[in-house]
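Researcher: I'm comparing several assemblies side by side, and this is the next one on my list. It has 230 residues spread over two chains. Same procedure as the others: predict the full complex and return the structure.
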Amino acid sequence: GAVVSQHPSWVICKSGTSVKIECRSLDFQATTMFWYRQFPKQSLMLMATSNEGSKATYEQGVEKDKFLINHASLTLSTLTVTSAHPEDSSFYICSARERGGLAGPYEQYFGPGTRLTVT
Amino acid sequence: DAKTTQPPSMDCAEGRAANLPCNHSTISGNEYVYWYRQIHSQGPQYIIHGLKNNETNEMASLIITEDRKSSTLILPHATLRDTAVYYCIVRWRSNDYKLSFGAGTTVTVRA
């Protein structure tokens, strides 16, 4: 099946710094990528949807100036957490939808997640 | 998208079938039922989906009631590796392809 990777798998940064997380579709072209955030013992919350070559669409309550999303190619999307604070510590997961893919199992492939800890 | 209700947790014995219920009483005719699972500290994994007919694949079976107001995911022979949070999601297959994850059911398979 299709594989989505994320890098890094975990990162620790100091408060006030910015962190970039990469999401790559390894063997397919992703028209759309999604970014989720998951706090401990909670469910996944969709943060934003990004389409290649266009601006991301953010869910209500998600600050677009704090969580910068770039989807510059059909295989790469990046999420930058700017001026990170301890409350931004979370598990960030991306998913990718295959270009021209059929619905069902081909709809979204999820990455393994990135654990961000802000100290 | 329709709301779903799942039990918060359930245990099952290794080697036995695990039956995971999901209620979606407000489901509309165009909405599909999807099941995903998330093993601890990993990304979600697609399991199965269906509209109104029962479905089976190599991972599980999905039984949808005739009125489509509830469904059951069946793991035929649970293993320890099936311990995970299982999410039942009801969604209309539209162009946005968004998935809304609820609380899910934490399934613990015991030896």
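Model: For your comparison table: Chain B has no helices and nine strands.
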